[in-house]
Design goal:
The complex is a heterodimer of chains A (409) and B (112). The mean pLDDT of chain A is 95. Chain A has a single domain, classed as Ammonium transporter fold, CATH 1.10.3430.10. A two-stranded antiparallel sheet of chain A has the order 1-2. Chain A starts with 5 loop residues before the first helix and ends in a 7-residue tail after the last helix. Chain A has 409 residues and is mainly α. Chain B has one domain: Alpha-Beta Plaits, CATH 3.30.70.120. Chain B is built from 2 helices and 6 strands, in the order E-H-E-E-E-E-H-E. Chain B is 20% helix and 37% strand. Chain B has a 4-stranded antiparallel sheet with strand order 2-5-1-6, covered by helices on one side. In chain B, strands 3-4 form a two-stranded antiparallel ribbon. Chain B is of the alpha+beta class and 112 residues long. In chain B, helix 1 runs antiparallel to helix 2. Chains A and B meet through helix 8, helix 9 and helix 10 of A and strand 3 and strand 4 of B.
């Protein structure tokens, strides 16, 4: 009979609050990069998901993701409306904390993942169709992937795919959806001709700081107990973020001649996203290498986007998609059972099989999330029209979608 | 009466203001403006993408003076605002038909 541990419970409760804070943090991170007429529209696209996805999660999302397994593909709905999810610990997940605490910790992950996608279609999406997309995406993309990777009996889980805190479930899945959005929604009006200058970089840096702070709960909490693995994940997270920032800033200083604040924030987020799947499986030195790699690869990815002319407006693909991808592969290289006996050894420790499993995980999650997101966007576009009218786009989302302005003239 | 309108570099505003108060100018209107002339815009870099920002920030000052003050005022603005580099600005001089002080209803040079 599993017993509730006070320290673990307190830790996961605090970690849940930290992960929640990442969603408004992300809202500010994104809002600083858009023009002043789209600030509230951008913030709202993240903020409202706290409500929308939490409702979805409590009724069906949690049960679909973590409920009793059906053929390795999905959880059944026997935990509908949190039936049976209460104060007693689950016998399978986080066995030392109340089941309902594990549920709410996972809820915060489900909330921020669709919020991350919004950066791809910033400044041009209608609010109603955006809500429909986010809800359906949570149900038919997030919940199944979450079950495959983290659910007991999930088929990627059984293949031995490792994702400590969401490289696949959160970052690669949102990055793949973002790529679908970019291909379907087309660039913003005036893209390539007008200057889309960020309206407030201090806001973006504040958001990046809140994200970094919350990320300690995201990765540290994913140990699901106040133990040494949580401590390792906490340290790896910090080292991933700091080395990602250092690398990005150094690269742009050499490449473009100036170290920029947006580059510092972008590099930090790239490093944090990339270390996420690895944070509980790799030691500090590996974490630094992974962070440096994140800065290098994500910087290059964003530079290539500019060359291809894709309007992934706030770089969801280049930072989260690419970060989740290389982070997941890095688990297959750097993971060590000396750090986490519950994990596996990677290439460096002489095991080739883990990297194979990680490659399968990346391919499956990318293809599934991309294809289903593409179909979803297309279907919602045909039924409701995703994009605001030209007039509305000129006027900005703040007035057209919300009848408010962020700044008085 | 004449209106003297000068577009100058923003960081030169204090020097111009001090120079003008020393010759007895008692008021002016200042506006933050953007524009371009021979001085081209500047380059900004966001996530590796370069943007050319055409319009340069300037300050516009407007002063109304009596006809005999014009040369002195222009001389003082020119000296205080000059750095010798492209982008120091321009001065425009217009005729003013009348001036009215709202509080007292005084007109003409008395109202300046």
């Amino acid at each position: 009979m599993p017993e509730i541990q006070g320290a673990d419970t307190a830790f996961i409760l605090i970690a849940s609050a930290l992960v929640l804070l990442m969603t408004p943090g992300l809202a500010l991170f994104y809002a600083g990069m858009v023009r002043s007429k789209n600030v509230l529209g951008t913030i709202m696209q993240s903020f409202i998901l706290i409500s929308l996805i939490s409702i979805e999660w409590v009724y069906i999302g949690y049960s679909m993701s973590f409920g009793p397994d059906v053929l390795g593909i999905i959880g059944n709905l026997s935990w509908f409306g949190l039936k049976g999810v209460g104060p007693a610990p689950s016998p399978i997940y986080a066995t030392t904390i109340p089941h309902i605490v594990f549920m709410v910790f996972q809820c915060m992950f489900a909330v921020i993942t669709p919020a991350l996608i919004t950066g791809a279609f910033a400044e041009r999406m209608r609010f109603g169709p955006f809500l429909i997309f986010s809800l359906l995406w949570a149900i038919i993309v997030y919940n199944p992937i979450c079950h495959w990777v983290w659910g007991s009996g999930g088929w990627l889980n059984r293949l031995g795919v490792l994702d400590f805190a969401g490289g696949l479930v959160v970052h690669l899945s949102c990055g793949a959806a973002a790529l679908a959005a970019v291909l379907i929604l087309q660039p913003r009006k005036g893209f390539g001709r007008e200057n889309f200058l960020p309206h407030s970089l201090p806001m973006t840096l504040l958001g990046a700081g809140l994200l970094w702070f919350g990320w300690f709960g995201f990765n540290g909490g994913s140990a699901l107990a106040a133990n040494a693995i949580a401590g390792n994940a906490f340290v790896a997270t910090h080292l991933g973020g700091m080395s990602g920032m250092a690398m990005w800033v150094a690269l742009e200083w050499v490449h473009r001649g100036k170290p920029t604040t947006l580059g510092a924030a972008s590099g930090a987020i790239a490093g944090l996203a990339t270390i996420t799947p690895a944070s509980g499986f790799v030691g500090p030195n590996s974490a630094i290498i992974i962070g440096l790699l994140a800065g290098l690869v994500c910087y290059t990815a964003v530079a290539l986007k500019n060359r291809f002319g894709y309007d992934d407006s706030l770089d969801v693909v280049g930072i989260h998609g690419v970060g989740g991808l290389i982070g997941t592969l890095c688990v297959g290289v750097f993971a060590s059972t000396a750090v986490n006996p519950g994990g596996a050894d990677g290439l460096i420790s002489g095991n080739f099989r883990l990297l194979g499993a990680q490659c399968i995980g990346v391919a499956v999650v990318f293809v599934y999330a991309f294809v289903v997101s593409w179909v979803l966007f297309k279907a919602i576009d045909m039924a409701f029209v995703l994009r605001v009218s030209d007039d509305t786009e000129n006027q900005g989302l703040d007035l057209s979608e919300h009848s408010e302005t962020a700044y008085s003239a | 009466m004449k209106k003297i309108e000068a577009i100058i570099k923003p960081f030169k505003l204090d020097e111009v203001k001090d120079a003008l108060s020393q010759i007895g100018i008692k008021g002016m209107t200042v506006t933050e403006v953007k524009g371009y002339g021979r001085q081209k815009g500047h380059k900004e870099i966001y996530r590796g993408a370069e943007y050319i920002v055409d319009f340069v920030a300037k300050v516009k000052i407007e002063i109304i003076v009596s006809r005999d003050m014009v040369d002195l005022v222009v001389e003082n603005i020119t000296e205080a605002a000059r750095t010798g580099k492209i982008g120091d600005g321009k001065i425009f001089i217009y005729d003013i038909e009348d001036v009215i002080r709202v509080r007292t209803g005084e007109r003409g040079e008395d109202a300046i």
